[in-house]
Amino acid sequence: MTEKKGKNPSDNANARPSNARSTSENVAVNASDTSRGGHKKDRWLVLVYFGIFLFLSHQVPYVIGAVVLAFYFSVILDVPYEYLMRKTKQKWLAVISYILVVVLFVYAVISFFPTVINEVQSLFSQIQNADINGLPEWVQNILKQLGDNLSTIVMSLVNQAITFVPSLVTMVMLLVAAMIGLESIKSYIGKNLDLLFVEDPAFGRKFAVKLFSDVRRYVRGQVLVSLISATLTTIGLFVLDIPSALTFGVLTFVGGFFPYIGIIITSIPIYLLGFSVGGLNEIIWVTVLLVGVNQAETWLYGPKIQSDNLKIHWFIIMASILIFVGIFGFSGVIIALPVLLFIRDFWKFYVKPLDAKTE
Fold it and tell me: Taking Cα atoms as reference points, which of 304, 337, 346 lies closest to residue 318?
């Protein structure tokens, strides 16, 4: 018969520390593996959300553009409101400033199109009534060719504008609706933000808050930059006796939020009005004004104000805007900088820590 050997209590006692040590080592290894994973699931989820955003920006650009613009405008309207609340503690003054900014935007939009249309009609009338009979025949041919080309270009622009009207109307309606409901939307997203992340909702919330804070900081900094440029442009247009100087000043302010593209869009009607007022001489002075303000913004106060906000090289900003415009069209101008900020914050939160832990 085999004799059963009893277990020595001292062996059990020795085994317990060994098992405990083994368990703690396994926990440490698992924790190390999880840490080394660097929020792997959340990282891929964030990339999926980013891909959906880009897909929608390409497929329904006016919808995404309206939502992003609503966020921009909400920040713009908050700047004077928060400043007066901080300085005066008088809520009624802050509310009045809020209303004045809205009225100014509405005035600029309403008065812009009639002014431009009237001046374009006046310009065509001047060209048609110009006496060119005394000029050499080759000059007459060149002027006639230029007139025909200009008419073709204008008609093409008008036709394109007509095709965009339904989309623009939809975008304006969405913009108004988004601005009205933006606070409730932000409140809803804030309450349910943790549901977007599965591994570490607190870390995901920290990333999202940092991203929106960076975009908000950029917009707030750009408010000051655009305000300086708009003020200088408005004063210069008044001095040059350009009609609707205040309207174009407000449009210059809005155009400042679309780097490199905004200046092109706002300068075209200014040149048209300048030519109708004073001909080529006025065009030269308008060029001096616009180039001077643009260069001052690019090299003087713009980088100084935004240096602490973006910390992204100007060439990267310009290249990204051009690339996004080519891919996404209109919405590319609006989403280019937020996408740049997303890439930077995603790298800091989900990529850089992973590299550090791997090493």
Answer: 337
For residue 188 the two structure tokens come to 């809803």
Instruction: Name the amino acid, one letter, at 189.
Output: I
Rounded Cα distance, 208 and 168, in Å: 30
CA dihedral 172, 212, 108, 63 (to 10 degrees): -10
Q: Say if pTM beats, i.e. exceeds, 0.85.
A: no
Helix crossing, 91-129 with 245-255: angle to 10°?
A: 110
Tell me the C-alpha distance between 230 and 179, whole Å.
Answer: 24
- Given a contact cutoff of 8 angstroms between Cβ atoms, the answer to whether 327 and 58 are in contact is yes
Copy the structure tokens of residue 349. Answer: 């939160």
Distance CA 53, CA 50 (A): 5
Q: Is the distance from CB of 349 to CB of 46 less than 8 angstroms?
A: no
Per-residue pLDDT reduced to its tens digit, 278-309: 877 888 999 999 999 988 887 778 777 776 67
For residue 128, give the amino acid letter.
Answer: Q
Work out the angle between the directed axes of helices 40-59 and 314-328 (0-180°, nearest 10). Answer: 60
pLDDT 10s digits, 184-224: 887 888 888 889 998 899 999 999 999 999 888 888 888 88
Mean pLDDT lowest among 88-97, 175-184, 192-201: 175-184
Q: What is the length of the chain?
A: 359
Read off φ and ψ for residue 50, nearest 5 degrees. -65, -45
CB neighbours of residue 277 within 10 Å: 17
- The C-alpha atoms of residue 123 and residue 84 are separated, in whole angstroms, by 44
